[in-house]
Amino acid sequence: MAAVAIEIEDLHKTYVSGGRQVKAVRGISLTVREGESFGLLGPNGAGKSTTFGMLTTRVKPTSGTMSVAGADPTRDPVSVKRRIGAVTQYNTLDRQLTALENLEFRGRFAGLSAREARLRGRELLDRFGLADRGDAMVHRLSGGQAQRVMIARALLTRPAILFLDEPTSGLDPQTRVNLWELLRKMHADGQTIVLTTHYLEEAEALCDQIGIIDHGTMLDSGSQDDLKAREGGDSVVTVVHEPGTELSGILRQARQLAGVSRAEADDATLRAYSGRVEGVVPALLRMSLEAGLFVLDVSVRRPSLETVFLALTGREYRE
Amino acid sequence: MSTDIDPHAELAVTFVPGAPPAAASLLHPRQWRFLALLARDVRVLRRDLFSFVMRSATQPLLFVFVFAYVLPKTQGAGGASPSPGGVSFATILVPGMVASAVMMQGIMAVSTPLVMELSYTREIEDRVLAPVPLWMLALSKIVAGAIQGCLAGLVVLPCVMFVHAPGQAPHISLASWPLAVAVLVLAALLMAGIGLLFGTVVEPRKLSLLFTVMMVPITMLGCVYYPWASLSRVGFLQWLVLVNPLVYVSEGLRAAFVPGVPHLPVWAFMGVLTAGTALICGISTWTLQRRLTD
Fold it and tell me: Which of A57, A79, A127 lies closest to B5 in CB terms?
């Protein structure tokens, strides 16, 4: 098993403002291994950004222990910063500098020579399709370009872990998909990635390990398949018959079918709930055919990250 | 997509800061990173040099133009009333104008961008996530601001020395230049430290207020336009202005440039400037660290 990249244990963060205590993070523990792509998924205000801040040395935890790339962000922030790259949620590029200068100075702040830093900067801009934007001042970059420069800047010091806080929020769909492609390739090349997101499809597309967090606590974490098996509930097989079809007969049979936990009929539509749909679909079809019923449509809805997410975090609105 | 950058080519734990340039071998890596922080500010200043010169020189230039050229001409030979010791107003003005330029640029160069970086643009994250300790970031802001303060003083000095009505030339002595340099450097560091302090505690929407309720009184009551000794006729004010850091800069430069005019003793302004610089730099480094850590 790959070495541990991040280990956090019972992490708490309580903000005090005006005598009021806000418990942003209430006891989060997690482990990320080298080479993993870990997604911290949760609704707005769940504590994702606070956790991101603590992992990237920006926020001091109230209690708990952390190890990030082999160092403690609280006690030795400089070592952690030297080993990670972080892309914040907002455009924090240095607006007084060009895109290439942003990369150059990040490298020099880390102790690289100006020549080496510029060299790596050009390579990264080239790799991210920004070769001709190096001399552009930051305010001339589009949102997607700025985001790629931010990622390039985070990668300049060849970090052991790349952190991204809501990497595609505010980007248009094309830019988002392109960025996903970029991140997927980096992950395939072995880059350890930790990202926060409230987009289910983003976590689904990018992360092999997911932690679902809400109200400052980790509700569940694991691989996507684990989560779906644990929290996603049953798959639903829906068999639609000709209007007016009498289903009471096959409903009784369906309820006795192995693997079906529950079945219901609604007009001419039969729904069967099952933990494993593989054998259930043909069995249901055979029943309908043998009863001489005319089937119009069959569909299967498998548990998705969305059903997992909603099952865990509920449906109430978030600010 | 080419993968010429292998993320594991250099693992974090074995991170070696590239091939340092030849000069770097003489410096500790930490000093090298500090210089990189300064280099960023110098790069920005160089790009912005024209507006920096205009920003520093316009107001002092107009001031000496009106008070050392126009007014003496409109009021005949005497001009603005001669100061104690019978020296021309321009003579009094030169150290004062240099001092106020150092103050203005030293404070503004640090506070204005910092207020923005800490709030609207959040650009400060760029520097905060760089692998340098926060105190080093604070120190680099102070030193970069001090460089701009010194430069502003050096830009203003010739402006105010050579603009005057005929017969009103300032009598400036450069004999005690080491004292002038010492005061200039200390003053620039002190003002940049104050700029850092303001930058970390002032809210962005109060930035213009900072200018009118802090900078203007500091300038008007900073012994810029009159020597401290001449305030003896307004006794309470003479003691009150001693809380104003600019007084020690004006008086220090006056002592260096125009030793003949009565001024604060050298130990007094050097003592206050040294202690004040140490104190303010310490406090502002602390307030910046506090602002940057949630």
Answer: A127
